Amino acid sequence: TEMSSQEASEGKKMSAELEKLWNTQDEKARNTRSTAEAAKRVTQRVEELTAERLTQLQQLQKSVENARAVAEAEDQVAQRAEKLEAGGLTQWQQLHEASETARVTAMEAKEVAEKEAKEAEERKIQVKGQKEKSDNADAIVVAIRTEEQEAMQQPQSVAERARERARMRTEGREKMAQLEAGWKADSTETWMIRRGEAKNAHAVTFDLDADCMLHVTARDLKTGNKQEISVQTEKGSLLKEEIEEMTAAIADIPLS
């Protein structure tokens, strides 16, 4: 009887330990599933943001092309009006002033391109479209030489032509800035977002490396525990504000 009582006590103790071990394993399994689900939501959000950004970029490129077509049409109308304009400066004076304007315009275009290239190098960001700007500067020089040749064949208002060129340069710079604002070359940057007490005081870090791999780290500010996941993104498709939106998805990641 004494042995049976001892065996029963040990059996209960062993059952309690087995139940505790089972509960621990079950909790770990739930945490693993929760982590996988959170990672899946982050991946889906990345894909959605990528598709939205590419669509916006295509629309912006189309707007730039439409603006260029309108500018070319206006230029043709201006040239036709200049042919009908009588009086004004002599052909020699017009050619001289057009040549001087051409030289100044080319220098301004070159200075703008060089300044922006230097700033991009200092920030260690390769801005897409820099080569295109350089090519545009060369195209401006060619266009100006063509205008010089036309000036020898027909009278024109140099002052009006100068105003038109200045307007087109300003519009071109604005359109190019809009186009480049929606695109980021591959780079390594990190942003820290601190969540409030209602969100368990998590600090979430997003690190987009040079291979376009997005590393997300959630850290509990009280305990210091961390949970990390990595997501492959499409090159240049994420902006800082879009990455910050993804903090909502990472809030559900359990911190072991």
UniProtKB/TrEMBL annotation:
Keyword Nucleotide-binding assigned: yes
Keywords: ATP-binding, Coiled coil, Nucleotide-binding
Keyword rRNA-binding: no
GO molecular function: ATP binding; ATP-dependent protein folding chaperone
Gene3D superfamilies (alphabetical): Substrate Binding Domain Of DNAk, Chain A, domain 1
Coiled coil spans: 103-137
Record-stated family: Belongs to the heat shock protein 70 family.
Stated name of the protein: Uncharacterized protein
Record lineage: Eukaryota, Metazoa, Ecdysozoa, Nematoda, Chromadorea
